[in-house]
Amino acid sequence: MKLLLVEDNRELSSWLTRLLKQSAFAVEQAFSGEEASHLLMTQCYDAILLDLTLPGMNGQTVLKNLRSKHNAVPVLIISAQNTLQHVVENLNLGADDYLAKPFDILELEARLRSLLRRASGTANPVITCGDLQYDSNTKRFSSCVGELNLTPREHAVLEALIRQSGKTVSKKKLADDLFTLDDSVSPKALEVYVLRLRKKLEQSSAQIITLRGLGYMLSHVTPAS
């Protein structure tokens, strides 16, 4: 899942980015409202963490511009402006949630997971495809053979596929959704991750199917009798 973190405090931004990456999120950073607006014109994100007190264009303006373009990406405000008036005002402008600084990283991650579940229309934190299960709270995959041991990028690819289980996901969308502008991921590398995942899912009823020219689909495959 790819996030945009809009925070002008570089020390705080680096700390949050490091911790979120450890939880298998791909994170891109913006340090001003203008930088965030530019990224939002060229990139797609699963959620935005938005500070309000930014240099130049403030967070409220970023939020207003985003919603005026009918962009429904979930937005979690992270701000030291925590009066009831500020909270209500920004929720009314289109923010999905509001977290006052200082906050605990565990609460931030829990609120993010809740936002992402609501955005996908899935209330249950456990997503399944056949015997494959993904617990979005613990970030763990398991199947009939137990917990899967995945590298961070294998995890990112499989999470994207199970969230769209039964639907075709193009290679370009996988790359755009999962990896940041700083990552160097070629289509060939993506094929390698899929190949490794297939080997790890050999005994599972969930299989990754290649749709030539279209992309990949995670599907429940019934064993032949």
Sequence-ordered SSE layout with sheet pairings:
Elements: E1 2-6, H1 10-22, E2 26-30, H2 33-42, E3 47-50, H3 59-68, E4 75-79, H4 84-93, E5 97-100, H5 105-120, E6 126-129, E7 132-135, E8 140-143, E9 146-147, H6 152-163, H7 171-178, H8 187-200, E10 206-211, E11 215-220
Parallel strand pairs: 1-2, 1-3, 3-4, 4-5
Antiparallel strand pairs: 6-7, 7-8, 8-9, 10-11
Helix pairs in contact: 2-3, 6-8
Nutshell version of this structure?
This protein is an alpha/beta fold. 41% of the residues lie in helices and 22% in strands. The protein has eight helices and eleven strands.
The largest pleated sheet is described as: 5 strands, parallel
Beta-strand percentage range = 15-25%
Mean pLDDT: 89
The CATH topology of the largest domain is: Rossmann fold
The CATH homologous superfamily name of the largest domain equals Response regulator
In DSSP terms (H or I, runs of 4 or more residues), the helix count works out at: 8
Structural class: alpha/beta
Tell me the overall shape: elongated
- Count of all domains: 2
Please give the alpha-carbon distance between the first and last residues: 37 Å
Q: Provide the helix percentage.
A: 40-55%
Radius of gyration: 19 Å
What is the CATH architecture assignment of the largest domain? Answer: 3-Layer(aba) Sandwich
Strand line-up of the largest beta sheet: 2-1-3-4-5
Q: How are helices and strands ordered from N to C?
A: EHEHEHEHEHEEEEHHHEE
Flag low-confidence runs: none
Secondary structure tally: strands: 11
CATH class of the largest domain: Alpha Beta
Modified residues (4-aspartylphosphate): 51
DNA-binding region: 124-220
Keywords: DNA-binding, Phosphoprotein, Transcription, Transcription regulation
Protein name: Response regulator
